[in-house]
Amino acid sequence: MAKKKKQKKSKIKSPALRRFLMALKVxxxxxxxxxxxxxxxxxxxxxKELLKMQKEAKTAVAASTVDTFRSSETSVIYxxxxxxxxxxxxxxxxxxxxxxxxxxxxxxxxxxxxxxxxYEHGGVDYLAIMRAVLARIKYGHVTQGGSTITQQxxxxxFLTQERTMDRKLREMFYSMEMEKKYTKDQxxxxxxxxxxxxxxxxxxxxASYGYFKKDVSELSLSEVAFLCAxxxxxxxxxxxxHYDNTIKRRNLILKNMLDDSKIMLExxxxxxxxxxxxxxxxxxxxxxxxxxxxxSATRALMQAxxxxxxxxxxxxxxxxxxxxxxxxxxxxCEQSLYTGGYRIYTSISMxxxxxxxxxxxxxxxxFTEKTNAGVYKMQGAAVCISNKTGRVVAIVGGRKQxxxxxYTLNRAFQSYRQPGSSIKxxxxxxxxxxxxxxxxxxxxxxxxxxxxxxxxxxxxxKIPVRSAVAASKNVVAWKLFEELTPKVGLxxxxxxxxxxxxxxDYYAASSLxxxxxxxxxxxxxxxxATIENDGYYREPTCIVEITxxxxxxxxxxxxxxxxxxxxxxxxxxxxxxxxVIESGTAKGLGLSKTPSAGKTGTTxxxxxxxxxGYTAYYTTAVWVGYDTxxxxxxxxxxxxxxxxxxxFMEDIHSSVEYQALHDEYDGKKSDEVIDDEDDSEADxxxxxxxxxxxxxxxxxVDTEVPVTKEPDNWDDGQKEPVVTExxxxxxxxxxxxxxxxxxxxDVGMQEMLLWRPKRI
Length: 760
Fold this sequence. Notes:
Radius of gyration: 37 Å
CATH superfamily of the domain at 346-547 and 562-760: DD-peptidase/beta-lactamase superfamily
Mean pLDDT: 82
CATH architecture of the domain at 346-547 and 562-760: 3-Layer(aba) Sandwich
């Protein structure tokens, strides 16, 4: 019995079987060894890198917030009535939509064509990847995508568009982490707002505005499917260049939506039959409103960050340090306008803007000479400020031309020119009233050795200040300025943000407008508006409010200002400038509906003409001249600039009520709000704002007072003013032969910068 058992055992363990089992064991050991060695090699070759990728993805996604997916949004500028003026776009044109604002058709269209199992997978659809790989092997090229919506979002926000295995692996790790942190609805919202639709449009809302000029909520089913066709291949399905391709994919999306029971058959057939009409694509010019609004918004953001604007400095190093700080922050804030998604609400009245542009164009239409670039050589610029708020309501930086691609220079705030006699009220007469003079004070209009000449070569002797202002007497202005001292006279415009006053301006010639760098129309408008506003200066801006895309207030302006002149002094000045219009150098430029005050200005050799004036409602400053200074025989403050001012102001005051500018120097003002426009684009009523107690007038600063200009890349063609040696002593009586012919009596001295020492 025992022997039989032994024989049976020997039969099972035959030599062949033993060899097989031994081979199997060896094979298993080899495989295990290969796996072990391969695992070790993979770990040291790829494993560490994969773990690094996983850690990187986990860290990046963990640090992300909702704001990460809306970090770049297009900013929008609005006029005083809340109508869009322009968009500030960077590389991305984005208008972010919350999930609740995204139409269901948009969501279902993307899911049907891009990721049917979106709500089932964990960020990566491995079966879809396998199908895509097999399809590529079968057909030799990509026929279907393997990336989920989550993967596409990750690629657009966190990674690059490069097609490498490394990027693909990173994409998968990121996607899995995204699914852990955010809900499916959030991820879908992020995707729809960040996916690319060609031509700089990111997100469905930007694409809707760009291709159809309407809100996404207004799109038809067919239009939605048409737009959703683009992201799969923004070049291949570019609707402007490959319209038929886009239509074919639109039809595929609609078929998928039908098959997925997301739409009814009737909806499908109607959408398929719909003829898609794209809006005309135009390249928007950077016009004068946009450039100024952008500049004003940039400074508003700087102010919101606590930046303190300065216009006087203790030393060259102080100025240099300020300049560097200013330029750096200005650049940062300006750039943020193109990505921050701001809503910029302005005081610009497009009705008044059109009227001001028309006034400039019509008065200068006789000057047809152009540069090689097709830009008119003879130019004009103007700024209109609401006296109620101190904000700019219209700004024109040059003549309008259809032949140019855009406006190269906004002369209203980017160009600085000699002001001539128009500067006198700001640095001579109103300051003199501050120091004891009145319009009835007697002054001596008599020539004196070393002094300037009156433009008409005549001298009136003892006259009241009012007459000197009305006739624009150079001698009187010079004497009063010397009595004040240039330090005191110029201190007033420094307090009003005049940005280009330098050490070489602290001489008597500045009283006649002989400034080294000149002034801008914006500065002049704000200066005259300060006189109208009882001496309170308000920075000239068009910004009312800036919010982010979620309506959180970033910046809000007000009409509070600082007192530069006293109420009594400005009332006197207004009275004198009423005389300028009634009987002086601006006679005939008065308005029919309401009183006005103003001052002419004509520079040496009639190269620059100015008119600055105001009513109780608005202040407007106008400049006319060549970009490269050139004599214009009939250019005076009372001619082209004066007529532009008169025509514009007459137009916008056509329906106002009579409103006195002053009452025996008491400076009383009406708080009554007048609707002065009766056309379809009329301004909305401006609400009165709180006032504040005046600030104490600061002592004049005895410094070199240049200030930074706004960063720019243009050349306004302005030449450096000529500085001459002090002339030889002259006779006590003025020469009898005068070549200057100025019917308005407004031209500055023959050599605007005479008696000024040379620069060292």
